[in-house]
Amino acid sequence: MDLTLAYRSLVLQVAEHPWVKGLILRRGRGLYRRYVAGETLEEALKAAEALEKEGVHAILDLLGEMVRSEEEARAFQEEILKLVRALAQKPWPRYVSLKLTQLGLDLSEELALELMRGILREAEAAGVFVRMDMEDSPRVEATLRIYEALRKEGFAGLGLVLQSYLYRTEKDLDWILPYRPNVRLVKGAYKEPKEVAFQDKRLIDAEFLHLMKRMLREGVYVAIATHDPRLIGEAKRYTEAMGIPKDRFEFQLLFGVRPEEQRRLAREGYTVRAYVPYGRFWYPYLSRRIAERPENLWLVVRSLLGG
Ligand code: FDA
């Protein structure tokens, strides 16, 4: 396993420790501000508006995952519907991301499907695009089944995510290709064992480029979601060389990460979206961001020291 991935694995493990979690929840407020737009919908809409002014579109994401009761899942659905209704009033591109475990996937696939259906009915009427994030490997198959079911029911404004670190992803792409999918391609953010995922950054990057190029060649609309300058550069070069127009793909980055690059890509005429998370349940999201970059450990230390 390479060092960056070993670091990620360690951070994600330590982050689950109740003592660490308690400490970060008490003292890590300054830290979460770097990656999260705020705890309320109003704060998220304000952040989205500021991005719009810079030519970057927002993907609104109500934080929450792994709910433990149907009541909680239904409460999240209600909050997401509030978001959809608020976006319906906005003049900018309307875009939402969500997680199926937020809608009760771990309780029952039928429940998550039913709650997704309710969201998509309103979202389609309001012109809001909805993307299902991809979570850890035990949930991939169910996520793809739900995607397939909803596309078969005729919901068109629905996208999903593929992760280049999983060995299975190319076969998953074959599975969903008949539905003319809108795919966000990412490297993958979870701690995955070597039985299911590449453990070497070079292989994950190579697979990312392979999948990206295949999708672009086959006419899949691709949201290229990475901050990696090498991969972004290669995406630009490849699309130019192949004559793939800029309306066949876009770049997506996370709120708070490389904001100057987000603006630069937008100025160059690319569609750019920033993933804007908000809400009270920011801890797992923040842990994954810290785990992505060893330098971020200093942010944790500084924030705990009150800096
Ligand atoms: P990599 O980790 O190699 O980083 C490249 C460079 O980017 C770093 O050297 C650094 O400069 C910068 N960088 C990266 N992460 C940073 C951070 N946290 N803070 C500061 N700088 C950072 N994953 C998943 O499993 N399911 C999903 O649904 C999604 N959804 C998603 C949406 C969007 C819009 C993005 C951008 C990413 C995701 N991800 C995701 C996360 C993704 O899998 C991956 O973990 C991160 O994007 C980090 O990987 P990079 O591709 O940026 O490369």
TrEMBL record:
Q: In which pathway does it act?
A: Amino-acid degradation; L-proline degradation into L-glutamate; L-glutamate from L-proline: step 1/2
EC number assigned by the record: 1.5.5.2
Cofactor: how bound: Binds 1 FAD per subunit.
Can you give the residue ranges of the Proline dehydrogenase domain? Answer: 44-292
Coiled-coil ranges per UniProt: 59-86
Q: Per the record's keyword annotation, is Metal-binding included, yes or no? A: no
Q: What class of enzyme is it?
A: oxidoreductase
Q: Which domain of life is it from?
A: Bacteria
Q: Where does FAD bind?
A: M134, Q163, K187, G188, A189, K201, T226, H227
Q: Kindly list the positions annotated as binding substrate.
A: K99, R288, R289
Q: What catalytic activity is recorded?
A: L-proline + a quinone = (S)-1-pyrroline-5-carboxylate + a quinol + H(+)
GO molecular function, one example? proline dehydrogenase activity
Sorted alphabetically, the Gene Ontology BP terms of this entry are: L-proline catabolic process to L-glutamate
Instruction: State the UniProt keywords alphabetically.
Output: Coiled coil, FAD, Flavoprotein, Nucleotide-binding, Oxidoreductase, Proline metabolism
Which co-factors does it depend on?
Answer: FAD
What's this protein's name?
Answer: proline dehydrogenase
Annotated source species: Thermus filiformis
- Which lineage? Bacteria, Thermotogati, Deinococcota, Deinococci, Thermales
